[in-house]
Design a protein that fits this description.
Among the domains are: about 80 residues, Trypsin-like serine proteases (Thrombin, subunit H); about 90 residues, Pdz3 Domain, CATH 2.30.42.10; about 90 residues, Pdz3 Domain, CATH 2.30.42.10. The chain is globular. It has about 475 residues and is an alpha+beta fold. The chain is built from ten helices and 28 strands. The N terminus is likely disordered. The strands form five sheets. Strands 22, 23, 24, 25, 26, 27 and 28 form a seven-stranded antiparallel sheet that branches. It has a six-stranded antiparallel beta barrel with strand order 1-3-4-7-6-5. The chain has a six-stranded antiparallel beta barrel with strand order 8-9-10-13-12-11.
């Protein structure tokens, strides 16, 4: 391992210069600054707390070494450490982290750490190494459980991540860059994050340093309890994300006992309700989840949920932010009754349904996702629309209800700022079906229009507003 001690080099050069050129002088004694004993004591207490957590939790953290015949997924997709080291036999090796889930050898880690592995070895804190087998995986949240043949292991204790407070100290433990059992400190900087990395997302965000190899390791509080499983980083930003324990513990238990995960589902995709969208829908605040699309024959469709509805409550519990809807549904057993309080066209509606088991091939809930008649009428929007032909539909693999496609978007235009892209299908304008390109121009005659758009990654609403002179 090559290390560059730049700081030492600079310091040595400075000392040599000082001794060679400085004239002798009488020693200068700086006035001593009084030490605040209370501040020192608080710092020592915090330092002791970190050390205590490290001693308590580290025995439950393992290093997972994997071997694969083919290239590991995107160097472990997020930060699964040392992925891509190729042996002379052509096998690829990598490493990640994990946390002991049960004392009889079940270990919770990330799915992307083990999903293509042909061999998995688990190294315990005491140095023992065990061959592991995959007990079950859940790609939807990027979790997996691997099993080793061992007993009386120090299983980690899990906290209730729903009670975690933004701003509290957290520690990340794992094996970054292949360096076993490394601890870094930071704060819990946000909850309920969605970054479109996985099918189901409700991430904890932290500025505790997380690096390649930390995948699958725990994010813990100062009580030494697991708040989440470290999973994703934004490259170079210093921001990391962890799957909350409220999800990880439930998934781990199901994978350990059944080898698979069953979770409740109602069949909607949704998006955050911005102030501009709320105003267009006649709502005075941004609380709630805006329904972007409803899956055919799903519980939501059968109950009467429609695109453009704003879900404000689930079983009487408020949906303040859009991820609250996902959390509320996932906490329900499959087949349980659910009551949704909906705002539709400014009027309250209550809908009842039974949850179903979530299918395994869905896109992320909550993620946005003859030439025909052309239109240059909405030119002020910077939007070129075209009638959707069977040929274009086939090229776009589109089978939805839309009839108008975005043929082009002028850079810097209102349409560009609204997030529209070439190939988008405009389904509605101001809650009315778009049959031809001119319908968008008619909806935007007062300067703006609420558009419902289909994209390969899902459906979403956006507001496009003409530039003011």
């Amino acid at each position: 391992m090559a290390l560059a001690f730049a700081g030492w080099t600079a310091l040595a050069g400075f000392v040599t210069y000082s001794y060679a050129n400085a004239a002798p002088s009488a020693p200068v004694v700086a006035a001593a600054t009084p030490v605040n004993t209370e501040d020192v004591n608080r710092a020592v207490q915090l330092s002791d707390a970190f050390a205590d957590v490290a001693e308590r939790v580290s025995p439950s953290v393992v290093t997972i070494k994997v071997e694969a015949k083919q290239e590991l997924p995107d160097v472990f997709k997020f930060f699964g450490g040392r992925g891509g080291d190729e042996s002379p036999q052509g096998k690829v090796q990598g490493s990640g982290s994990g946390v002991i889930f049960t004392s009889d050898g079940s270990i919770l880690t990330n799915n992307h750490v083990v999903e293509k592995a042909t061999r998995i070895d688990v190294v315990l804190r005491d140095g023992r190494t065990f061959r592991a087998k995959v007990a079950g995986t859940d790609p939807a949240v990027d979790l997996a459980v691997v099993k080793i043949d061992a007993k009386d292991l120090p299983a980690a204790t899990f906290a209730d991540s729903n009670k975690a407070r933004v701003g509290e100290w957290v520690l990340a433990i794992g094996a970054p860059f292949g360096l076993d059992y490394t601890l870094t400190a930071g704060v819990l900087s946000a909850k309920g994050r969605s970054i479109h990395a996985n099918e189901i997302e409700d991430y904890l965000q932290t500025d505790a340093s997380i690096n390649p190899g930390n995948s699958g390791g725990p994010l813990v509080n100062l009580q030494g309890q697991v708040l989440g499983i470290n999973t994703v980083i934004i490259g170079g930003s210093g921001i990391g994300f962890a799957i909350p324990s409220s999800i990880a513990r439930s998934v781990g238990e199901q994978l350990q006992t059944k080898g698979k995960v069953s979770r409740a589902w109602i069949g909607v995709s949704f998006q955050p309700l911005t102030s501009e969208l709320a105003k267009s829908l006649g709502k005075s605040d941004t609380h709630g989840a805006l329904i972007a699309s409803v899956v055919p024959k799903s519980p939501a469709e059968k109950a009467g949920v429609k695109p453009g509805d704003v879900i404000e409550q689930v079983d009487g519990q408020p949906v303040v932010e859009s991820p609250d809807l996902l959390r509320a549904v996932l906490m329900k057993p499959v087949g349980s009754k659910v009551a949704l309080s909906v705002l539709r066209d400014g009027k309250p509606v209550t809908l009842q349904m039974n949850t179903a088991e979530r299918p395994g091939d869905l896109r992320a809930e909550g993620s946005p996702g003859e030439s025909g008649e052309a239109s240059d009428a909405p030119g002020a929007l910077g939007l070129n629309l075209q009638q959707l032909t069977p040929q274009i539909s086939q090229e776009l693999s589109y089978k939805g209800p839309g009839k108008v496609v975005v043929a082009g978007v002028k850079p810097g235009s209102p349409a560009d700022r609204a997030g529209l892209q070439r190939g988008d299908i405009v389904v509605e304008a101001d809650r009315r079906a778009v049959e031809k390109p001119g319908d968008v121009a008619a909806a935007a005659k007062d300067g703006k229009a609420l558009l419902r758009v289909d994209r390969k990654t899902g459906s979403f609403y956006t507001v496009v507003s003409k530039d003011e002179d």
